[in-house]
Each structure stands twice: as C-alpha cells, then as structure tokens.
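Backbone shape codes:
***
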Amino acid sequence: MLFEIEIPTREEFELIDITHLINQKIREADVKEGIAVIFTQHTTTALFINENESGLLEDLKEFLQSLIPKGKGYKHDRIDRNAHSHLRSILLNPSLAIPIKEGKLLLGTWQSVIFVELDGPRRRRVFIKLCQC
C-alpha cells in the first residue's frame, strides 16, 4: 500500500513532526506488523528520527545554518539561489525504514519522525509505503 501525504510548509527552514500522520496511514491500512518506508522526493527536504524537543530542533537549525551558510557563493546559486538547501539535505536522508509493531511505528520513547523543509515555504509530498509481514 502506498500513501501520499501533503505537507504545506510556512517557513524557509522548518522542522515538522509527521509521526502522527504516518501512524494514521498505518491505522487506515490496518497493518499490524510490517515495515513503513517513508520517502520525500524533493531535493531540498529530508527526514530524520530524533527527539521532538524545541531546544534540540533549534540546535539542529543553528548547526546546519552554521555548517552550510546561505549565500556563501555556491556555484548552484547562479541557477536559483538555494544551493545551501541542497547541500544541507545531502547531510540528512530522503527516506527512512521503520518497523511496524502492534499497528504503529516501532519508535523509542523519545523518537519522532521529523520532516525537514530546507527551501520553503512550499507544498511538499511525502510517500509512505506500508508492507505487512
């Protein structure tokens, strides 16, 4: 089963917890045990698993902004001035594979699936492939 969720972003750099959206699709599909593959096909977005804690998320933003600053004279900026967004996404992942147990993502106590917008605001799509096994 393949599902698509739309994520409207409001900021240039935004971190959005999408765990509940994925678990909702798992419930809709009635998958009890299996695996979820989550994928974003945009080259200026990413996904990661970590704690959804405001201080940590701000630290991540500051870390990526200091590591790969906007407007540093990147060659790709000649095209559309978003090279920093592409470079930041390379450090993260476009996809995740997470086991499903008892009808929901098998995440640790503090783990969440975070969608990363690096070149917003835009309307983004995330695909969720659910395999029951």
Observations:
- Residues 2-132 form a domain with the Jelly Rolls fold (CATH 2.60.120.460).
